[in-house]
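for the recovery benchmark. tokens below, seq after
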């Protein structure tokens, strides 16, 4: 496996702030596993920086955090990083995990058709709940952890050299485990409302590869 990873971590609103901090743990794991890490954080999560690093360093694994739509994934200030019919060929020969709403439905499919090895992402919106009292300390937010730890399990498993399909399954199993926990544990009943969103994320996460994407 190519032990080079590029991570985007914009931080310009509540959503991206949470993703920014939770992705830091992935970054540290990659470093411990002797990956060469390119961390495009805050304003550096721009199309110019992204395309420049991709061209210069040719990372094999891409982990994108940010907002998205069916045909794009975004970086800092919601400006697109990769968009259908613009620059999706940048993903050729790459494995991608996009923690980004909706992007698997169109961008993911087009990326695989144009040469991406695998694209793991979400067909619909990705939801997570959070504690408004923990916004300044996201990693202490037990509610957000219910969502962001399972979602990040995808790239954690990829770093540990699991297959793309296997990594997606591990993430889905983690979502299911947390859903069962909030529904069954007396200590977690205050979080029971999270169950439907955990289920939603699990059902809408897909792993797209050549064998399951029609030309």
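predicted aa per position
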């Amino acid at each position: 496996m190519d032990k080079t990873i590029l991570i985007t971590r914009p931080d310009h609103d509540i959503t991206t702030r949470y993703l920014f901090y939770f992705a830091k743990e992935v970054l540290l794991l990659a470093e411990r596993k002797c990956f060469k890490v390119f961390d495009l954080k805050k304003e550096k999560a721009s199309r110019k920086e992204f395309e420049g690093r991709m061209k210069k360093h040719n990372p094999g694994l891409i982990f994108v955090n940010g907002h998205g739509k069916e045909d794009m994934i975004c970086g800092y200030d919601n400006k697109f990083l990769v968009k259908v019919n613009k620059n999706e060929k940048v993903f050729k020969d790459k494995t991608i995990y996009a923690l980004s709403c909706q992007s698997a439905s169109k961008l993911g499919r087009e990326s695989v058709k144009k040469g991406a090895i695998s694209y793991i992402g979400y067909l619909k919106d990705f939801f997570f709940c959070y504690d408004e009292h923990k916004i300044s300390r996201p990693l202490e937010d037990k509610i957000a952890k219910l969502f962001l730890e399972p979602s990040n399990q995808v790239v954690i498993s990829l770093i540990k050299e699991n297959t793309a399909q296997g990594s997606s399954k591990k993430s889905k199993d983690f979502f299911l485990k947390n859903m069962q926990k909030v529904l069954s544990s007396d200590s977690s009943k205050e979080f029971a409302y999270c169950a439907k969103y955990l289920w939603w994320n699990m059902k809408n996460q897909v792993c797209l590869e050549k064998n399951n994407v029609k030309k």
